[in-house]
Amino acid sequence: MKNNRSREWFQAPEYYGFGRRAWLRSEGFPADVFDGKPVIGICNSWSELNNCNAHLRDVAVAVKRGVWAAGGVPLEFPTISLGEMFMRPTTMMYRNLMAMDVEESIRANPLDAVVLLCGCDKTTPAQLMGAASADIPALVVPGGPMLAGEWRGQRLGSGTDGKKLFDQYRTGRLSEEEWCEIEGCIARTAGHCTVMGTASTMTSLAEALGMTLPGSANIPAPDSRRMAIAELSGRAVVGMIEPGLKPSRILTRPAFENAITVLMALGGSTNAVIHLIAIAGRLGIRLTLEDFDRISRRTACIVDVKPSGQYLMEDLFHAGGVPAVMNQIQDLLHVDCETVNGKTIGENIRGTPPSNDNVIRPRHRALYPEGGIAILHGNLAPNGAVIKQTAASEHLLRHRGRAYVFETRAEMLAQIDRDDLPVDGSTVLVMRNCGPKGAPGFPEWGHIPMPRKLLNQGVDDMVRISDARMSGTSYGTVVLHVAPESAIGGTLALVQTGDEILLDVSERALQLLVPPDEVERRARLFKPPSPHYQRGYGRLFLDHVTQADLGCDFDFLMP
Hints:
This protein is of the alpha/beta class.
């Protein structure tokens, strides 16, 4: 068996070979762990500051069982964990830091292969980015979604339904006591959000890329099958070493096109656009926004899961999960792509039709004729912007209205509940200084709340535009990731209250309807905001992060 990496550490002829063996034996391992057994790292993003991943210690135990059974030596190690609900200013600020942690931990230690334990939004792409750069055999074991909440007979999807109910609470339609009841039952188990948010999207795309065992992504976190597939993953990773089944063999351009196709069929999170570009970039593969739009136009959205649809992640799992979705669209996929179990995508999805055609619809009954995400261009977004068209209001997909501009998120929060806010249902809310450099860190601020004034009038959606991201659990006619961002002088920085803006999703257009000479005049007057950080990781981030259309990775981490 090819365990040359660990052999270099433990079988070295000098003193340090002896020392490393002795120090490992101090943990209680017998001498025969060095008898040609491969060393498997278990990269664990468990943390009590990350409720999505709080059960991963138990998952790691199951993985270890599988590694031992297959003749390997499992050694668990921690990395930083990115808890979406707790971290400020945003977990996106630290995705690249976690990716560096993963990469360097793999590179610096005597590992022949690695199992990546993830779940919460940024932990999956960070681990894939790090593993792609380290490029030893790697396999992903997601933690799975939490079980649905329930309140007074209503099934609740964490994130999506919470935001909808919060609007009812803001406008007095829910009492303090009712709101407290919802708080106690909307997130009732470990695991990531039980809607097609970023976490569910990215673990599903890890499977679509071929980096998990088939059927792994959507098993609910508390389900016993989560532990079973973790053990099987431990066995499988040992078998990846001999043939050299590394990320660079699995994560090919056709594999990324498969992932984009599945993203569109799922109605998945807009954040996946950034993460897939970043993961591919680690391997020198250039994905563009045009790749996403091209594939979106040919791929119907067939998964009826919130926020684009009505069902939840456990329903998707019971309907067959990612293999069943891929089975429905296999003519759009590169079915000859390799996966971590040594089989092709085509072999893995053969004989896996959906068991519920209301959750995973046949294409003639698609939820939406195109993919969940559309890419917009125009003078307001020269390098592109994104919109989740399946979660938008149909009557707003072509809209012309006057802008009302918020300079910062703080300004927006201070004004949004004003009874005299000068907006109506046709207004286009614009918020700037929320991008990678401007926020800083590119936070999920793009789901600008509906003005309370309009909610009280029965208006539940309007066009909102920013250079921020949005939680995958969010919904509405929300344009995101405007690039270049306003903080570096993108056109978004030049919009003034009262300017007309045109959104036309079918034409993929986002236009500021201001004469070019006036735009140029405003550009000459632009002054960038002061940087948020002068030292430390924050300064490193500001100096080296790329824009949204390039994946927001650090420039020095890309080949």
